[in-house]
Design goal:
- It is a single chain.
- The chain is globular, with a radius of gyration of 18 Å.
- The longest helix is centred in the middle third of the chain and has 23 residues, at 75-97.
- 41% of the residues lie in helices and 17% in strands.
- Helix 2 (75-97) crosses helix 3 (104-120).
- Strands 1-4 form a two-stranded antiparallel ribbon. A two-stranded antiparallel sheet has the order 2-3. A two-stranded antiparallel ribbon has the order 5-6.
- By secondary structure, it is of the alpha+beta class.
């Protein structure tokens, strides 16, 4: 159990979006084809701009899945789906009212979401894993770091 979040054993989605799709839809074209939300996406590695379905950008396969003590943990399904859902409600309210909600629970969901956004992007994860590797080198191979068993990307 991860801070009150029950880990599921069901088949989890493989496309793990590091930028939530509900957020990207806010920037999608109103003229998307076939009812699919599309957005202009700039690929920094290829220096290429393309018009792409939101479901096909800002993701890595199984990015938030790892094994810890023999248990498969899927943060996309077990944590981020709930967090993104709650944040989408709060952000929709902010856009509608043009003000931050006054209820503490809504503020907390918004703060959790913003903190998670900072941590869930690939580069930040790579940096955290690099730091964990440095710590492991300093403290020895017996030091337990569950994420060390999971390759980046």
């Amino acid at each position: 159990m991860l801070h009150g979040v029950k880990m599921s054993k069901n088949k989890a989605p493989q496309k793990h979006h590091y930028v939530p799709q509900f957020l990207l839809r806010r920037f999608s074209s109103p003229y998307s084809e076939g009812g699919k939300s599309k957005i202009f996406w700039y690929d920094k590695q290829k220096c290429l701009c393309r018009y792409t379905a939101i479901k096909d950008i800002a993701f890595k396969d199984a990015f938030y899945t790892y094994v810890d003590n023999g248990e498969t943990i899927n943060l996309e399904k077990d944590l981020f789906s709930k967090l993104d859902y709650e944040a989408s409600i709060v952000l929709r309210e902010i856009c509608k009212t043009k003000s931050v909600p006054q209820e503490d629970i809504k503020k907390h969901w918004l703060l959790y979401f913003l903190a998670a956004q900072f941590l869930r992007i690939p580069r930040k994860r790579e940096n955290l894993i690099r730091i964990a590797e440095d710590i492991k080198k300093q403290l020895g191979p017996e030091f337990p770091l569950g994420l060390m068993n999971r390759p980046v990307g």
